[in-house]
Design a protein that fits this description.
about 230 residues, alpha/beta, Spore Coat Polysaccharide Biosynthesis Protein SpsA, Chain A, seven-stranded mixed β-sheet, about 45% helix, transmembrane, transferase, glycosyltransferase activity, membrane, transmembrane helix
Length: about 230
């Protein structure tokens, strides 16, 4: 079985199309599957729509978080609850095209334990998003033993072996991209074009992006910590 995990927060305008496009893209896939929607304590009608979708299709399952744990926390909750032999994670705003799921599954069948998707840069991408991201990946790769490709996203497939290792790490951090790179296993990746949001605006504020970057840098390198200590001593 394959698990598709998608964190959703105030996505009442897109969650129904998300499920429809996932089921459509997997129509010719031989494996059975579950769609696990993780509602990150939405304040709109997202959860009600998810419950209706669950009644209409038993392959749709959901987790309703007791408070807002953030994007990475919601993804982690889904990974820990997924039952599949492979676990796919994708955002709920349809910027990760569901039509690419069969390609990722085919790469998994070919023997890859991790299939990661890397964003193609769009000419319309805002500079305040692109350049800080570019700097982050450059700095991260300089400071850490774990290397990440620029543009890696949370659009990925993990084999059950990888999931089992991740869920058994005693200190579970928020920087999943680094954790997945750190545990190893056979990996491959593809580029994808980020689709425009179906409705609304990104729920990931600038402050969340900076928090995510700091988590990554301090989780996988002691060098930033050493720099802070040196500055403190000086």
């Amino acid at each position: 079985m394959i698990s598709i995990v998608s964190p959703v927060f105030n996505e009442e305008e897109s969650v129904e199309e998300l499920v429809s496009r996932i089921t459509g893209s997997l129509r010719d896939v031989q494996e059975s599957y579950e769609i696990l929607l993780v509602d990150d304590n939405s304040s709109d009608g997202t959860l009600g729509i998810i419950k209706r979708l669950r009644e209409e299709d038993p392959r749709v399952k959901y987790i309703s978080l007791s408070r807002n744990f953030g994007h990475q926390g919601a993804i982690w909750a889904g990974i820990c609850s997924a039952a599949g032999d492979a676990v796919l994670t994708m955002d709920g705003d349809l910027q990760h095209p569901p039509e690419l799921l069969p390609k990722m599954i085919a790469a998994w069948r070919a023997g890859n334990h991790v299939v990661f998707m890397t964003k193609q840069r769009r000419n319309t991408q805002r500079h305040w998003v692109f350049y800080p991201s570019l700097v982050f990946y450059w700095v991260f790769n300089k400071l850490s033993d774990v290397k990440l490709s620029f543009g890696q996203s949370d659009f990925r497939l993990l084999d059950r072996k990888v999931v089992n290792v991740l869920t058994n790490i005693p200190e579970k951090g928020q920087f999943l991209r680094g954790m997945i790179g750190w545990v190893g296993f056979k990996q491959t990746g593809f580029e994808y074009e980020v689709a425009p949001r179906l409705q609304g605006v990104s729920k990931w504020a600038l402050v969340h992006r900076f928090s995510f970057a700091f988590d990554g840098l301090f989780s996988f390198s002691v060098r930033p910590l050493r720099a802070v200590l040196v500055i403190g001593v000086i």
